[in-house]
Amino acid sequence: MLPLKEKDRPIVKKLLEAGCCARCVLRFCCLGVQSAYRQSYEDTAKELCAFISDSENNESQDAAVLEQHTEDPPSKKMKMDAAETYVQSEGDSAVVPTVMEEGDAKPADSDVCVACLGVLQELCDKAYAIKISEVVKAENYQFDTMVLSVSLPAQLSVREHSCWLHVKKEVREKSMCLDKDDVIQVKEAFKWTMQGLVSKELGGVPVVTKISRQTEQFEVGVGFTHPETDSDCHFLAGICSDCFRPTKNKQNVFTRMAVVKALEKVSDEKFLKKFPCPPTRPASKCIAQDVHCLHVSVFVAGRYNKFSRTLPQTPWVIDGERRMESSVEELIAAPLLSSFRAEGFNFSSSGREDVDVRTLGNGRPFALELLNPHRARFNKAEVRQLQETINQSSDKIRVRDLQIVSRDAMGHMKEGEEDKTKSYTALIWTQKAIDKDDITFLEETKELKLAQKTPLRVLHRRPLAVRERVIHTMSTRFLDAHHFHLKLRTQAGTYIKEFIHGDFGRTKPNLCDLLKTETDILELDVESVDVDWPPSIPE
């Protein structure tokens, strides 16, 4: 039995007469009992008919008792009232009484609901649950729990507002402490009805509203449109134009959020002048859109070494033409994309090295966001095997400390980035002949402050600015009259090459100034990136 009360009867009656479906009647009665929505639509409709009939039978009996004490004979209409229920009259939007035998009760809303446009009728049953489950099975995702999300036409908010105004008077007269916010949303009623049906079709997998562990969230989205009533929202633009401003990313200004915002501003009086109350009955039901599956991104982090001086960090494309056949990110990503069965990836790292620069030592921290992975769970042994697969795929790179991390943990790689230090080794050429004593003073130079204009070589992709950077320490190893090794520990973000050759005076001071001769850099290696993330994993 539906847990409806006596005070709900006038609301139920008025909504049925207005053309609301059985489940929408429950919504406007603010019935938050989920099981009421899960029972079959036919049973719900019959119970509502019986609920109204009981009321009218009692009224008829009371009237008959009164008539027994009068001289006039009982009215024929009174005798018929005991068997009345509400069904749709042909060619009319109103529901009128008709005589029905006991047990012949039919849903009073066999046509499309004026409030939900059919979403809670035929589009909320076992047949649609089977369709959803078939799509999920075909996509072959790995998951333990599923979130069901729903996208509804914006005009449902307008129609819901109209229906609420239609019953508002009865609610106030019955002193019911309810407001429009207490009405159960179509989206919630749909989920309550469908979650169990979809779960059953998927072999009992829990279908829930949300998942606490975001790393495992698998979402199945269903959506509905209703072209016939798209114009229902348009009158709001004339009343609240500031709610419907176009943006670059949204072609349709009549979004659900914009419509809800406008409805909050519009007075009941203005609304009723522009929109019918109750809403008119549509000729067609909502159209179900394609079912979409999406698994939340998985993040994989680690450190990489780069041993090649002809390998860029990311694909090197100039004027639409690829210059190098591979890159660090592609060599790392390929095995991960295959194993996680992901649709794409985003690569990030703690800084970057030029194509001709090696990254040695403990390597450079990196992270990969794997988009819509069909498999998301790997144990430690499987992740270790993935690391080995990457390392065996090429001798140009090597990965260590590979691990699955959370989205929040990604922030550790970037936080305080400019306060971190990095160490380098550079092979220097000098135009003037030097000896060992000419370069030893560099080791005594500490905390050397630089002013670096954006280098000419990166000016096409970075804004022009002067950046202050610090070289903390330097040490040297003399090789011959024109060559020496220079080790530097610097503030992260320092342009090392520009410090060496001066970049036509754009970096001040520079090594040319310090040695009083032209200098250039022949080789550069990154020796360490002092970021304490991700956590090291013992080999």
UniProtKB/TrEMBL annotation:
Highest taxon listed in the record's lineage: Eukaryota
Catalytic activity: uridine(54) in tRNA = pseudouridine(54) in tRNA; uridine(55) in tRNA = pseudouridine(55) in tRNA
Keywords recorded for this protein, A-Z: Coiled coil, Cytoplasm, Isomerase, Metal-binding, Mitochondrion, Nucleus, tRNA processing, Zinc
Pus10-like C-terminal domain boundaries: 299-530
The EC number(s) this enzyme carries: 5.4.99.25
Predominant localisation class: cytoplasm
A Pfam family recorded for this sequence: Pus10_N_euk
Database matches in InterPro entries: PsdUridine_synth_cat_dom_sf, Pus10-like, Pus10-like_C, Pus10_N_euk
Any GO MF annotation of the entry: RNA binding
Cellular localisation: Cytoplasm; Mitochondrion; Nucleus
Example GO biological process: tRNA pseudouridine synthesis
Positions of the Pus10 N-terminal eukaryotes domain: 113-293
GO CC annotation terms, alphabetical: mitochondrion; nucleus
Family from the record: Belongs to the pseudouridine synthase Pus10 family.
Protein name stated in the entry: tRNA pseudouridine synthase Pus10
Species this chain originates from: Coregonus suidteri
